[in-house]
Amino acid sequence: MRRLLLLLCLSLVTWWVWAEEAPRIILIGPPGAGKGTQARYLSDKYNLSHISTGDILRENRKQGTELGKQAAGYMDSGKLVPDELIVTMVAEKLTGDGGFVLDGFPRSEAQAQLLDGMLAKVGHPINSVILLDVADSDLVERLSLRRSCPTCQRTYHLKSNPPKKAGLCDVDGTALIQRPDDKEEVIRNRLKVYHEQTEPVLRHYQDTPGIIKIDGRLSIEQVQKQVDASLTPLVPH
Ligand SMILES: [Zn+2]
After folding, report:
1. Is 58 an active-site residue?
2. Which one of 38, 70, 225, 236 is most buried, counting C-beta atoms within 10 A?
3. How many CA atoms within 13 Å lie on the side-chain side of 225?
4. Which residue of the set 24, 35, 142, 147 is catalytic?
5. If you measure from the C-alpha of residue 145 to the centroid of ligand 1, how many angstroms do you get, rounded to a whole number?
6. Is 33 left (phi over 0), alpha (psi -120 to 50) or beta?
């Protein structure tokens, strides 16, 4: 009887361990929705590789890898880096059984299909898609009221986090500026591009079991709570 119990316990433990699956997350959201913050949180909490294509491109260029040189050729002539090249660079980071969070990637349906193909080969498909949803009008307000200090890079928000003296940095007194990226017209254009590219990606992943849409206007902590809840089926403990 004791043996039988022991066996039962052992098989339960085995089942429990096997039932756990590394989160393989795609994090989607418009510019200014707080993707970077959430990606860092996820990667720390669940021990995931944080993969941002911007970082990967810079890293490959800096190290002078073959892929980096190819990408540099496109970038320096003002062309878009082809999907195949980007996905190959990302795939190099996705070897092994570990979980990951893809920050702002895939950016188009073509990239999503290439990515799925590569992940299918190793039997580790995407099992979580998190959309940080924020209305365009909120983002325009969030970003267009942002001011930055060119000396210490601190950022302020004219409404929610204004400097103590209007127009000047609290730390070093430098005159604050509005980054070209934060001008309303530029933001609206970035949002337009985002919607055109991302909506097909969302449709592509709409049947993923772990897909969740989170209201990005919530506080960072509230968003984290919802993210955690959505990952519970994958990481039960
Ligand atoms: Zn400053």
Report:
1. no
2. 38
3. 6
4. 35
5. 17
6. alpha
Residues 148-167 have a mean pLDDT of 93
Q: pLDDT tens-digit profile of 78-92? A: 788 888 899 888 888
179 is catalytic: yes
Q: Where are the domains of the chain?
A: 22-135+198-231
Give me ligand 1 centre to Cα 188, in Å: 27
Q: Which of 45, 61, 93, 107 is catalytic?
A: 107
| Assigned CATH topology for domain 22-135+198-231 | Rossmann fold (3.40.50)
Mark 85-115 as b/e (b = at least 16 C-beta within 10 Å): bbbebbbebbeeeebbbbbbbbbbbbbbebb
Q: By C-alpha distance, which of 155, 157, 153, 151 is closest to 173? A: 151
**Rounded average pLDDT over 53-66:** 89
pLDDT of residue 11: 62
Residue pointed to by tokens 């996820």:
42
Alpha-carbon span 5 to 11, nearest angstrom: 10
State the pLDDT confidence band at 2, using cuts at 50, 70 and 90: confident
pLDDT tens for residues 197-236? 888 999 999 998 889 999 988 888 999 999 999 998 887 6
Residue 130 has a pLDDT of: 94
Catalytically annotated residue among 93, 190, 213, 217: 190
pTM summary value: 0.77
Centroid of ligand 1 to alpha carbon of 174 (angstroms): 6
**Following DSSP, what letter does each residue of 110-127 receive, concatenated?**
HHHHHHHHHHHHTT----
What single DSSP character describes residue 177?
B
